[in-house]
Predict the 3D structure of the following.
Amino acid sequence: MESPPFSSTMVSSASAKDVASETNSSAIEWHSRRWTWGGPISLHRVLCMQGGDDDGSYAKNSDAPASAVTLSKPLLLNAIQSMKLFLASKHDDSLRIADLGCATGYNTLATVNMVVEGLRKRYVEELGFEPEFEAFFSDLPSNDFNYLFRTLSGVVPADCSREMSRRRYFAAGVPGSFYHRLFPRAKLHVAVSLSALHWLSQIPEAVTNKSSPAWNRGRAWIDGAKDEVVEAYARQSEEDLDDFLRCRKEEIVEGGMLFMLMGGRPSSRQPCDQLGDPDSRDKHPFTTSMDQAWQELLDEGLIDEETRDGFNIPAYMRSTEEVERAMAKCGGFEIQRMEYRRIREHSEEKQEEWSRDPASYGRSKANLVRATLGPIVEAHLGRPLARELFDRFQRRVSTDLGLLAKTCFYGVIVVCAIRK
Ligand SMILES: C[S@@+](CC[C@H](N)C(=O)[O-])C[C@H]1O[C@@H](n2cnc3c(N)ncnc32)[C@H](O)[C@@H]1O
């Protein structure tokens, strides 16, 4: 079967890059509180992974989420094996799959491909026909849908072409937040969300409010922060997961599947211990080196304290208990499987290679943070200062050999649930 065409396309609206370049941002001093969270521009307008395919793009820096895709594969295929088959003949309606928080690049294509292939094999073997599939690629409007559509159309980087040559589904883009309704009632047979649900819908206002006990002074994130800060994030996370589940409960057909993989922490850990072990705490790109890079900008007089403290990373690692509680509160789903796993930041061979070449390690880590945080940092600081920040981060990471010798793990929670 030839690759079917798009059934519809949506082109991304303003990316953070566009937003920043709309303003006169050439001066190094440029920064504007207009972009702080809770201000006139919402996080949803700027949060995205870096688009395109250059060295700082998400497409080129998604090894950890790629490991998450690999980890998901047996769990997802196993779940597909036990799923209800919906169609009785090839003339029936299509099977509809959504990837929520799809970003761009190989991971989203591999994920959708995995689901389509798993279901297709079952239909062929058990019912003797091949159904039609529709795949919905959904992300925030700031996502680089143009790049995604180009890969789907076959204008692809080499590492995607193998997946693409086997594309057996109609494709559509759906811009919007997964914390809102994205599809009509009972539309989806499978909804998948990989490495996305730990991104919150917003930064809790109190965290950037100087007069609040939850003011997160001197930190870009919440690992190790004071209780009030962490509690504010935990409340936001709970609200967000409730919204996500309530919307999916409407959209997924009875017997359909919800598969989620999100950043998570071991259940035994308090929320202020987001990363679960001391080495990961030290080495994670959102912690020490990031805070030091912000502090350097401050010490050099390039930004003021208010600007530094106005930036917070909108991510929260849930525990399995927190996810379980939200699922029970929402109702309508039967959890088939839920577990916490750890993903090594990179292989032992890579670690050895990098200890011989710390500069290339620094480059690689800086590219990773550019890919994931670039758009929101640029929205907060403007492009020139964002560049300065990432350069300092890179220098720090390249020169701290003690840190390089440590091993960082990313914790994830995997959940497979069936809509009752
Ligand atoms: C780390 S990427 C993961 C992408 C892809 N699923 C993968 O496995 O490589 C997280 C994605 O979630 C998206 N995202 C974050 N918050 C979102 C929201 N509220 N609604 C939709 N997508 C969101 C981001 O824009 C980003 O593309």
About this structure: The longest strand covers residues 252-263. The chain has one domain: 9-23+31-399+408-419. The chain has a mean pLDDT of 84. The domain at 9-23+31-399+408-419 is CATH 3.40.50.150 (Rossmann fold).
